[in-house]
Amino acid sequence: MATDVEVPALGESITEGTLAQWLKKPGEAVAADEPIASLETDKVSVEVPSPIAGVLTEQLVQEGDTVAVGAVIARIDEKATAGASAAPSPAQAAADSTTNPAGAGENPQLREPVRAPEPEMAGVEASSADDHITTLSPAVRRAVLEYHVDPTSIRGTGKDGRLTKDDVIAAAQSGSAPAKAGVQAPEAKAPAPETKAPPPGPRPSPGNESDRKEERVKMSRLRQTIAKRLKDAQNTAAMLTTFNDVDMSAVIDARTRYKDLFEKKHGIRLGFMAFFVKACALAAKDVPSVNASLEGDEIVYHDYLDVSVAVSAPKGLVVPVVRNADRMTFAEIEKTIAAYGKKAKEGTLTVDEMSGGTFTISNGGVFGSLLSTPIINPPQSAVLGMHRIEERPVVKDGQIVARPMMYLALSYDHRIIDGREAVTFLVRVKEAIEDPTRLLIDL
What we know:
Blueprint: E1 3-6, E2 16-22, E3 29-30, E4 35-40, E5 45-49, E6 54-59, E7 66-68, E8 72-77, H1 90-99, E9 114-115, E10 133-134, H2 138-147, H3 165-174, H4 221-236, E11 239-247, H5 249-266, H6 272-286, E12 293-295, E13 298-300, E14 307-309, E15 311-313, E16 316-318, E17 321-322, H7 330-346, E18 359-363, E19 382-386, E20 390-396, E21 399-413, H8 419-434, H9 437-441
Parallel strand pairs: 14-18, 18-19
Antiparallel strand pairs: 1-8, 2-4, 2-7, 3-6, 4-5, 6-8, 9-10, 11-21, 12-13, 14-17, 15-16, 19-21, 20-21
């Protein structure tokens, strides 16, 4: 009797997700607790494990479908034999009909595991073909057929080196993947005539019209959530931004002087973020409203600082939380942020790791940003934006000198933070960065 595979609990207040990719195909053997599919929720990617060891006999949903917590998405038979033919599931049947309607022009190489070409070097014996098997998901098979590329020549970036649709598209656009033998790309068709009058201005020459391409890609659940939350913040909060600049000379000097000793002792590099986290913790003691939140008609003040650190992930910006940052050492802060950065790239951040937070720091400077107005992360009341460091002329002791300067931006909710408080907070951060000794003596 087959065992149902259900969508697991995805975290507090999360009731559904999107099936991003099947990691196993019908007929393949699976071990107990081995991931068979990946789900994308509003906040994180979650793998769905097999409850038993056996053979995946049915896939009940397609990639891209929305599934609720507790819904059955597949079935596992512990008595079945791997490789045995399985009845096509609704998801598989739909994918096959989309990929190859009515069986026309069927390419059996895309319906079976794809084998990499054997080595052709003289004197080198070809290794077992089983060592080079790569399975393709339905979405990837459709992309391979559409772009007429050889999937064995593309390096996969998915889990365990699996090919993704983005890998196929990127290889096709760059020309790094050769076309499959005997398959010619279809000739570009002229676009259908427009029923509306053309817009004013020069039109592309007929010879270039085939180069004008468009692609429609559905927004991921994470991107949809980011968009909704940011727009809600703009619509709800009375948001305002105040700016200052800070001379980074002292921090750069401290890092240069102690970075080797710091890394040798703690096993982590000393970065700028730890200085800013500690500076914000110090400033929040003087201006507690910046570390507060608004709940209904009540202002909630926190005697701790849980810093949401904006981290860039392949599918969008995520904000894991460094909890009790005000009580952590420089090394503890740097290690926590580094671990979150690694998890963000791997897509393994949990919902708990991104929940909460009383204040946010966003470092657009790592991407080269000179200045920005960051958007607060509700229900928080403020966010600090860091930017790139560049030498600029400043006046010191009556002399114009070059100094490594950084613009700081504090966006805040004017409903609970007054302008004087916001400016005071930013000045406290500036003072602590320009004189890091203040961080040691709590001044």
